[in-house]
Write a structure and sequence with these properties.
The complex is a heterodimer of chains A (about 290) and B (about 325).
Chain A lengths: L10 H26 L7 H17 L4 H24 L5 H20 L4 E2 L3 H8 L1 E2 L2 E2 H19 L1 H11 L1 H6 L4 H27 L1 E2 L7 H11 L11 H20 L4 H24 L1
Antiparallel strand pairs in A: 1-4, 2-3
Chain B lengths: L1 H32 L1 H5 L6 E6 L5 H17 L2 E6 L4 H13 L4 E4 L8 H9 L4 E4 L10 E4 L2 H15 L3 E8 L5 H14 L4 E9 L4 H14 L5 E4 L2 H13 L6 E6 L2 H8 L5 E5 L1 H16 L7 E3 L2 E5 L8
Parallel strand pairs in B: 1-2, 1-3, 3-4, 4-5, 5-11, 6-7, 6-8, 8-9, 9-10
Antiparallel strand pairs in B: 10-12
Classes of the chains: A mainly alpha (about 290), B alpha/beta (about 325).
Chain lengths: ~290, ~325
């Protein structure tokens, strides 16, 4: 790709790719936690839109950006708690629960916004999405921080070990004394929180909250997780893989734009690259 | 067996009660909001309005325009939101046919898939008017829409003028294959080709979506740092590209969008965007109701009606939607 377009390997472009990947990476980190327990969270795109809209709405009604952002993050936590309780304590299939809440949260967003974007957000809030810190865009730093915290949680804490145990074999984990339900709730709360965080960043980047923001993002996040080698059956996978998966997706979109590839071919090419990447990944593992 | 029947009956009663509850609630809320509309149906006519989605300001404005006109004319308007799903629109049309409405205004999510729904209405002798997009087959009393080819041409003219006939421009495409995308592209490409000094250096899809346009434009700016103009096939993408241009600290890039969204109009007024080719969805909705009533009353209407376009540049009086 660097041969085809001399612009690909410039610092500006690489920092761009990181910036464009950050939203999907946040969702994908949360999704990794959920998929490790052999669950799935289809509601992340809708949570992103809901918390982004509520934050923007509060700001335009005079709430300070900081408090509005806290409220937006709380929305994500509550949404995740709702998913988690239904999956963990309600013993309902994660796929069905989050399919339902995806529609529910999207509906709440439409009710709240009346289908209109909320704009005219102050610069102090937009800094969250457009600001820079030590040469890199703020969202890239946030992505990095979230990755590090997530890595520590999964690899250096009891929480992580138990999440892997729940996904590996739920019954065995239960018999071994792991409070399975509690951990199921926890992973959906993490996913909801990160979706809300992604919602705030996206809103700040655009300078407006879009009621239909995040449509289809759940599939991008799942693709990143699977590309990164995490098993959809739970118990197996790494966060570093997920981040790499998210970056592969970002690089593909960026490259297709730089090369000015005709619109008709873009999706087909994207799909083929993803399939090849997954095949290479599996080959490596089986070896 | 008996128990099962009992449960079924109970479920039936419950859901009927729920539905009735929803219905009456909706009625009372519209009644309080628009007192005059439901109390006095002057003409006594009922028109069904099946809109492709209400998850988009353009169609919300269209609905509002239609509702206001219906209130004015004393027509009862039943609005159905299709959530961009042709099959739910099909069901909604079937329901409207069952309710024996006097006419149906349809803003189809898909031109092909809704043809059969229109044919059903034809069989039931209920006239159908299409708004913004039409259907491939079935009889339609009139089709009301903006001329998208013309909108593309108008956008190209603005860029040609602003760039004085030379420079590189970018075109951001909407969802590939939709008629709005095809027509706006056709109009723009034909007109921009008349200025030999202007080159379209990148033509990329961003699906009418603001976030996608932001990312796509950011990428394009990497490959083409010297562009002078952007044509975005809708305002959402124009606003996304504006954010990308601002983030890259580029000055003097002329952006033209299409639609007439309030936020885009504001940016034209403050000079961040060069121009907007505004459609007037609320007038389009009003035209729909007007003509539906004409058709019901047996008056003749033309087979296509162009809904007005307005060029908005800095200083133009236009409020947007």
């Amino acid at each position: 790709m660097s041969i085809a377009s001399s612009r690909f390997l410039t610092f500006g472009n690489l920092s761009n790719i990181a910036l464009q990947t950050s939203i999907n990476a946040l969702l994908a980190v949360g999704m990794t936690f959920v998929i490790l327990t052999s669950g799935i969270d289809l509601s992340v795109g809708a949570i992103l839109a809901l918390s982004g809209s509520i934050t923007a709405g509060l700001i335009t009604h005079g709430t300070s950006p900081f408090l509005a952002a806290i409220a937006g993050l709380l929305v994500g936590v509550v949404a995740g708690l709702f998913n988690g309780i239904l999956v963990g304590y309600g013993r309902l299939a994660a796929f069905i629960v989050t399919l339902g809440t995806m529609t529910l949260f999207r509906g709440l967003t439409e009710i709240y916004t009346h289908g209109m974007p909320i704009f005219n957000l102050p610069l102090s809030f937009m800094k969250l999405g457009t600001g820079y810190f030590a040469l890199l865009p703020t969202p890239v730093w946030i992505m990095f921080l979230v990755f590090v915290i997530g890595w520590v949680m999964l690899n250096r804490m009891t929480l992580g070990r138990r999440i892997y145990a729940v996904g590996g074999n739920e019954d065995a984990a239960f018999l071994a004394g792991v409070p399975v339900k509690k951990y199921l709730v926890t992973v959906y709360v993490i996913s909801g929180f990160l979706a809300a965080l992604a919602g705030l960043i996206l809103t700040a980047r655009l300078g407006s909250a879009e009621p239909n923001a995040g449509t289809g993002y759940e599939l991008d996040a799942i693709t990143a997780v699977v590309l990164g080698g995490t098993s959809l059956f739970g118990g197996e996978g790494t966060l570093i893989g997920t981040i790499i998966g998210a970056f592969i997706l970002g690089v593909i979109s960026n490259g297709l734009n730089l090369l000015n590839v005709n619109a008709f071919y873009q999706d087909a090419i994207k799909g083929i690259i993803i399939l090849i990447a997954i095949m290479l990944d599996r080959k490596k593992i089986s070896r | 067996m008996k128990k099962q029947m009992g449960t079924l009956a109970l479920a039936g009663i419950l859901s009927a009660g729920l539905l009735a509850g929803c219905g009456s609630q909706q009625n009372s809320s519209t009644q309080t909001a628009k007192d005059t509309s439901t109390q006095t149906s002057k003409s006594g006519k009922t028109i069904g309005f099946v809109v492709s989605t209400l998850n988009n300001p353009f169609f919300v404005a269209m609905r509002d325009g239609a509702q206001a006109e219906a209130t004015k004319l004393g027509v009862k308007l039943l609005v159905e939101d299709g959530n961009n799903d042709p099959s739910s629109q099909l069901n909604q049309i079937q329901n409207l046919i069952q309710q024996k409405v006097d006419a149906i205004i349809l803003n189809p999510a898909s031109s092909q898939a809704l043809s059969s729904a229109v044919q059903m209405a034809n069989q039931a002798k209920i006239p159908v008017i299409t708004l913004d997009r039409s259907v491939d087959s079935g009889k339609v009393a009139t089709f009301i829409a903006s001329d998208n080819i013309k909108a593309g041409k108008m956008a190209a003219d603005q860029l040609i003028q602003a760039l004085k006939g030379k420079g590189s421009v970018v075109e951001l495409q909407g969802v590939i294959g939709t008629s709005a995308e095809r027509d706006r592209e056709k109009g723009f490409d034909e007109e921009i080709a008349t200025a030999s000094g202007i080159k379209v250096v990148a033509k990329q899809p961003a699906d009418f979506d603001r976030t996608k346009a932001l990312n796509v434009m950011q990428n394009i700016l990497q490959a083409n740092p010297n562009i002078k103009g952007v044509f975005a096939q809708n305002d959402e993408m124009a606003l996304g590209s504006l954010k990308a241009i601002q983030a890259a600290n580029k000055k003097g890039i002329a952006i033209v969008g299409i639609d007439g969204e309030k936020e885009a109009i504001n940016n034209v007024q403050n000079g961040s965007m060069l121009a907007d080719i505004a459609q007037q969805p609320s007038q389009e909705g009003a035209l729909g109701v007007d003509n539906a009533l004409k058709v019901i009353e047996g008056k003749s209407v033309p087979s296509t009606i162009a809904s007005p376009l307005q060029l908005v540049v800095k200083g133009t009086q236009f409020s947007g939607f």
